[in-house]
Write the structure tokens for this entry.
Amino acid sequence: MTAMPAPVHCTIVPPHLLDRLSRAADPAIAAAARRTLVADAANRTARRLTTVVGATPVPLAADAPLDKPRRTIYDAGHRTRLPGRKVRGEGEEPTQDATVNRAYAGLGATFELFRDAYGRNSIDGSGLPLDATVHYDRDYNNAFWNGDRMVFGDGDGRIFVDFTVAVDVIGHELAHGVTQYTANLAYFGQSGALNESMSDVFGSLVKQYTLQQTAEQADWLIGAGLLAEEVQGVALRSMKAPGTAYDDDVLGKDPQPATMDDYVHTGSDNGGVHINSGIPNHAFYLVATRLGGNAWERAGRIWYDVLTGGGLAVDADFKDFARLSVAAAGERYGAGGAEHDAVVKAWSTVGVPTE
């Protein structure tokens, strides 16, 4: 039995980054960041006070197709009341609003990866409808999964642009739903960093699958295209080289470590869940590039097996995941094979023991 999912409000832009922006010298940038922080705090509180969706999968209608998503896109009209006005349903023609169409396509791309690569029917495994709301609030610098739906801000145009432009961001947030319905990793410390890393891994795989890129061809960036032109950076995070995604006078420097030698001990950001996720992120990148080919196949399959296999405790740490991934590689592909060796070597490189 899967434990009752924890009331987690998961955002793509971490609070430590928004907190820095809230102290920017430019009053417009600071105001947008403060507005986003206030909205995120309110949403986190609401998430704790409501019944958490995810313990019981939504039953499929008798005539519901098992191989197609059920998407509905809503427009918040720059307000914060959810879900907003329905603007596009499953199978309907594209609208004149590119943001609506990108959200619709991104939900479909995520559904397709989990269906085609892992045989999973939507994020809960039982055909859960995929809902999203766009144009949330004004100058809202974030996107989030609240346990029920995806929500996208338009960005402030100074630091961030429209959050639907990066399909891996959509995949990242929906993958929080997959974790919610499976391992239900607690959102604090190393288990929280694993929660964030699972979303980065599968968000990146959504992008790679959509573009049909091999591990060698992929950029391994999370949120490429989200930063406005004047920002010195390429993305929110880099799985290939954690700590190098941005280095900007206003945004600051990417704080992610790539190995346990630089693990960040902090009380902020739920114990550094968005920061220390760089370590398991880098381990996955090392496995995928060592094996080569399509990362959603062997490397992704191993990670998916661990996430959904039932052996990952809600408070699992990096060592737990490393040990289980080595076991999963051996079980699926054979002990001592290329996959098994790649996983062992990757965790060793980032400084996480596998025994």
Notes: The chain is about 40% helix and 10% strand. The longest helix spans residues 27-49. The beta strands are 10-11, 71-75, 85-89, 130-134, 143-145, 150-152, 221-222, 237-238, 247-248, 252-253.
